[in-house]
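We include the pair:
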Amino acid sequence: MRFDTSQNMKLGQQMKLAPRMIQSMEILQMPLADLAERIEQELENNVALEVAEGSDESEVPGEEVEESRQTDIREGEEGFGRLEAFEEDHPDAAENAYAGGGERSWEHDGHAGSYSRGGLDAEGEAHLDAMANAPARSASLTEQLLGQWGLVEVTPRVHALGELLVEKLDDDGYLRVELERIASEAPESLKPVTAEELGKALAAVQLFLEPPGVGARNHRECLLLQLDALEEDEHWDDLDDKQGVLAAARLLVEEHLDDLMNNRLPRIAEKSGLTLEEISAAKAVLRRLSLAPARRLVSDAPAPIVPDAIVEYDPERDRYFAYLNDRRLPNLRINREYALMVRDKQVERKDREFIKTNLGNAQWLIDAVRQRKETLLRVITVVLDAQRDFFDQGVQALRPLPMTQVADQLGIHVATVSRAVAEKYLLTPRGVVPLRKFFTGGLQTDSGEDMSYEAVRAALSEIVEGEDKLQPLSDDALAEALKARGIEIARRTVAKYRGQLGIPSARLRKAFE
C-alpha cells in the first residue's frame, strides 16, 4: 500500500457567524421583561456599563472602542439578511456558533487597576454564582404529597405502603398502575405485599391527602372522592337542598357518567327519575370539581404580561400612534472613568485589554437595545396603518397581513420581522393584544374584501354565542350562517375553527328546559 500527498485549491463561499450578530437577534426577540433581566445581568457583570441617572448620554467611547463599535455595526448591517437566510437553512448553526463564541469574563478584586481572571478558569465560582442567582426550585408534586403523608398518623406499615403509592401517582394525581403490579414490584424490605394491603393504604391516601381526588384510579372515583369532601365543606351549606343536590350528583357519576359526558340529559332523566332541573343543578355542582386535582399543587401561574408598546388614539389627527413601554429599562451609558483608563499608558496592559473588552461589550449592548427599539417601533407603525379597521371596529375587521409584506415595506428580512413580533404585546384601546395576532393569512369575502382567518374565527364565535341553545347550529348550519355574512368556507373548515376556539359540537352545546 502506498500513501501519496497532494495539494488542492478549492474556491467557495462560507458564512462566518459572529457571536454578536446572533446575540443581537436574541436581544431583538426578547420580550420586555426578559430584556430588563438581561440588562440587569449585564450591569452586574460588566464594570464598564452603568445607568445614566437623569441623563440622555448613553456613550462616551474611546477611539479604540468607537472603531470596534463601527466595525461591529457595519458587519451586522451587511450580514443581517444573510444570517437570517442561513439560519433558516441551518437551524443548529447559530446555536453552535453562539456556544463557541463566548468571551472570557473577568472579575474585579476591589482594588483600582487590579483584576483577577474568572469565567472558564473559575468553574467552581461560576457554579456557585449560578446557584446563588437561580430561583429556588418549587417542590414537585411527589415531594408535596409525601410531605403531607409524613404528618398522617398511621401504622409504620401503612405509612411505608402509602409512600410507595404516592410515588406512583401521575401528574394529575391518579394511580394508573394496578395494585397487583405495585405489589409485585415492591422493594424487598416491604415484601411480602398483597393487593389487599395496598388497597387499605390507598384508602388512607385518598382520605387524608389534599386536594380531594388525589389517589383516584379513574375519573369516576376522582369525582366521587371530591363529592365526599363536599359533604363536609361548610362553604356549600348555603346551597338549597345541599344533600339532595349532592345525592343527585353522586347518582349521575355512579350510574350515568357516560350519558352525562355526552350531554344526553333526557336519557338520564328517563333512567334515573330525576327532573331536568335536578340534573342541571347536579351538573352545576360537578362543574366545580376537577378531573386533574393534583394540578392545583403544581400549576404554574402564568407570567404577567408586560406590553412592549402602547397604542393610543389621537382625535385631532384621527390616527393611532404607538410608543414603546420602555420606562422600566434603564438608560445605559459607558462608564467615563473606564473609557479614559483604556488609553492611560500607566495602566497595565492586561488591565487595559480587559477594560477594552468590557467597553466593547457595553457599547454593543447599548447599540443592540437601540436597534431593537427602532426595529420594533417601525414594525408596529406599519401594523397600525395596515390594521386601522381593527382598532376602529374590532377583531372581525382584521385584514390579512403577511410578514413578507411588512418586510418588503421596511426593507428588512422577513425573519427579522418574525423575531421582532415574537412574544411581544401591545396595550391598545381594545385591550392587550399579541403583536403576532395582526400577522395572519386570510380569504376574500363575497363583497371582494380581504378578511383574516382570525376575523373568520371571531365571526364564528359570535354566531355560536347568539344561537338558540335549545336548537344549536350544526357545522353545516354554521357554514350557512357564515355564508350569509359573505364568508364562504367548507363544513370541515368550520369544524376545524370550532375546535381551535374550544367550542364543542352542537350535541354538547344543546341545553334542555
